[in-house]
Design brief:
The protein is mainly α. The chain folds into 3 domains: 21-64 and 311-459 and 525-758, no CATH class; 65-118 and 167-302, no CATH class; 460-524, no CATH class. Helix content is 63%, strand content 6%. The protein has helices at residues 2-11, 34-57, 99-102, 129-135, 141-145, 150-158, 182-197, 209-223, 235-240, 243-253, 258-265, 270-280, 286-302, 304-359, 371-379, 382-405, 407-426, 434-456, 497-503, 527-563, 575-586, 588-615, 621-655, 659-671, 674-709, 720-758, 771-777, 785-790, and strands at 85-88, 108-111, 119-120, 165-166, 169-172, 175-178, 460-467, 480-482, 504-506, 511-512, 516-524. The strands form 5 sheets. A 3-stranded antiparallel beta sheet has the order 8-9-10. Strands 1-2 form a two-stranded antiparallel sheet. A two-stranded antiparallel sheet has the order 3-4. β5 and β6 (175-178) form a beta hairpin. The longest helix has 56 residues, at 304-359. It is globular, with a radius of gyration of 36 Å. The two termini are 30 Å apart. The chain crosses the membrane at residues 34-55, 306-325, 332-352, 385-406, 438-458, 540-564, 584-601, 621-637, 686-708, 720-744. Belongs to the CTL (choline transporter-like) family. It is found in: Cell membrane; Membrane. It holds the Pfam family Choline_transpo.
Amino acid sequence: MTENVELMNKYGEPLRYDRNFQGPRERDRSCTDVPCLLLFVLFLGCWGYIAHYAVSHGDLNKLMVPTDMYNRKCGIDSNVLNKPYLFFFNLDQCIDPLVPITGCNTPQVCIERCPSETFVYDTMKNQPFAELKNRLICITDADKAAISSKSDIERAINEHRCARYYIRSQQFLNRCMFEFSDQLCELLPSVLFRNRRNADLRLPGNASYAERELELQAMALSLQSEPQARLSAPPSVARQVPVEEKVGQCRRQQLNGAVIKEKMMQTDTRLAKLVGNLVAHFNNGTHDAQRLGEEIVEDVVNSWKIVLMALFCTLIASLLFISLMRWLAAPILWFSIFGVLLGLLAALYYSIKQYIFWRDTATVPLHDLNLQRRWQNLLQESSTWLYLSIFLCFCFVVILLLVIVLRKRIRIAIALTKEGSKAVSTVISTVFFPIFSWVLYIAAIAFAIGVGLYLGSIGKYSFRMVRRLTAAGELTNEPCICSGPAINYTIGTACEPQLFQQYCSVQQRGFACVDTTCSFVEIDNPPLIRWSMAYNIFGFLWLSFFISAFSDMVLAATFARWYWTFKKRDVPYFTLTHAFCQTAFYHLGTLAFGSLILAICRMIRIILEYIDSKLKKYDNVVTRAILCCMRCFFWLLESFLRFLNRNAYIMCAIHGKNFCSSAKDAFNLLMRNFLRVVTLDKVTDFLFFLSKVLLTAGAGVSTYYFLVNNPAVIQLNHNAVPTTVVVIGAFLITSVFFGVYSMAVDTLFLCFLEDCERNDGTPEKPYFMSKQLMKILGKRNKLPPRARRSK
């Protein structure tokens, strides 16, 4: 009883724990927070019903309707009711990673049907005028109607009002895409080889993908009347690869297999064009950018084996590093701390030196208004270096005092980091457990996006009568008058495209309205569907937080079982599996409760962001200030709840209590050891960051060194390409590994605090911590000689 009273006085409150606690056990567990689990299951059932309703009544084709260059929905808006397909003048311009942001920089028009034949004006000039005009695809019907001679065709094409060429196409999502014809299949093998060997048949190096395909189509058209031309392939080529075999592959596989391989060897692929366009945004030379894009794709394709081998070595190195951290944690951490202090001293010395120099030097400020001159003036002021010296001196003193005061707690953090390394190394399967969480995350994201798209397609089209803007951004002023059933149609009011097309016209001329249209605005979703969309968003938030919580508790139960096993070599082999089953059978309700709290907080933040976007146009200072404070508050609240939930899951994994009790116990335990918590959190975060940087940099440097010093193994255009891929992949791999490591340290820290408060080292209450931790704290176990020898 004396010992219990002493604990009450020391920590300020009585320990309401079982003094006979010996670690997580299953015999005393029961299902926790069952009402929350039932609520979660009911919620998922309703979500499933909403998904079924959305798929049954939604139509994704409504969301895939293309839009032309005048912002008209093909086949829906008034002027293009009978033109459901979108045609691109130069489809090659749309193979760009920035198209979702900048748009496709080529004329796009709605047409009645996709081209069924290839048209090349430069090779078909001699054909009759009527046939040429009939084949033209122009921006507007008026442009095509105004053409009355071949010179008008030439002028319209040069002014980019009509397409100079197009390739036989087929519709994909109501968009006209390239289709390879049978003639191209027959001529492709010989043309490919001729294109590679004969310089006169090649286009310039910066020719686009579409132009190269157009070259093949033009050759096909020009050779149709020359039967002997099909036999023009060199005999050596014919002996190497029979033409019949190439034709069969093209027809059966639509340019897959050997033909694609041939084109990949030339790096003339859509991926190369994609990368080339991306590089072009950061490079002034389009030709150089395209060539660089092709070289990057070629390097990635040729070095994939080396990249995979480097990533596999990174994975092995991460496992070894975690195993070695039990010995390397202390030197790495202390070296980093003293390195920061020495860096601050060096910076302080330099700033003081600069202050003395500029204090004793008379200068005239530079009067130019550019930013560079302003920066130079700032560096030439002695007060700048004085303030910087004071700041650096303050940081140095604060960090030095913290290291001196918290040196014992830093040693505890290092020891716990070593313990975490032992735990992860013992139960190595925990490192690969996040793969399970990733699969669930991907499934949840795909489900939520699919339900959202189907819900968004439910409803009627909403149209409005509007006037078109000119290229200069000016509003047109067409006198469009409506009559009959559409007599009430005015600019800005709702309308129906069929009625508008039939009863609205320019009365002075009797023509249909061109610059005034009945245009699509949005899909008018019923109120019930809008609430269903909000339900879908909240469902995704709740489910994603639940998946994260499940992963945390399984890992926490695993590492807690390791800590509370007195003889670590007796840890069960299937500890992770046991923790998985324990969490699934007993504590899903607790996970549902904790994830619900976070989902509500995140939903409030989303609503605040929505309100903020709606109120921006009013420019009210008071409103913006209130919203800013609320956003900041809920961000802080969510951060705190995530920290509290993580520790509550750990306590639930240890004791098997419900969420509220576990959160309360975890919070009280952490507050009684506040300085230890702060120290451990910052120290481990810094240590893990250094470890990830070290492994990532090592993987990148090793890959680059291997490529530079072994040119006979693989020849690349740029060694930096596979090196960059390896660096990105290595950082992702190390982040996964050290995420598990961080959970191990957090779990062992709470177990350590529990161990310190529950046990006293007597044979009845021995410490479960390692000998190193007991040495740091000045504690030891008073075990009988026989037990000591067995341990």
